[in-house]
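Handout, page 2. Input:
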Amino acid sequence: MKDKKTANGTGPGGSGKSDNVRRGGRSEKTVLILGANSDVAKEAMLLWVEKGYQVIAASRTLTGVDDFIVARGIPAGQVITRHFDATAFADHAAFYAALPAKPHIVLYAAGFQVTNEQALLDWAGTYRMVNTHYAGAVSILNLVAMDGGNPHLERIIGLSSLSGVRGRKSNFVYGSTKAAFTTYLAGLRQYLGSRKVVVNAVVAGYIRTKMTAHLDLPESLLLEPAFIARAIVGARNRFVLVPGIKWKLIYQVLRLIPESLVSRLP
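Output:
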């Protein structure tokens, strides 16, 4: 698939602006969103645009991103779209090298989910979750982290899940992919600490998105994508960010209760 043009008509390579774009007399930052078609990523994109940042929205499917840009009235040229497939590892280096600007902030929000029963019976679904949540993330974020030609990098944010905190019988296949991702982010944070690059893991509970629409989840615990997006865009130095008071409590309980009690959970 070819790269999409930006909203102001520029093709691959972007508008020719430098990483620190000047508009209205102030310096902007560039945000790279990987998995930009996720409901949370689109809401985060909107918030970064409102802050005046240039956004590169990268996704395997761009139609939903384009529709969101039009529906929310995002100013022409403030979002550049690029095709990115988290599972197409061989294409990642070329994708990153062709970006029109080096990012200050990177959000990895690519996601895919099947039920635990489906994952146990169908290796294809499991394999895609592993590649989307872990292998694909490691592949592209290693490129971002090791780019010595990008002095602007200041933050990498990964959208993870409370499902990865403890293995539970209802979702341990999906949860294991998120646990691996969170562990990778923790090590990456330590590795990049000397360069003053902050790495955050947004460990989210149940979110009302198209990815979870087929799951039977308790309504009282569902969070809206815009709520998660505000936590992402407002991230500071803390590594693990758990949006929502209820989910903060659940996170602490899951971390501390003994395995004999975890085994009784659904």
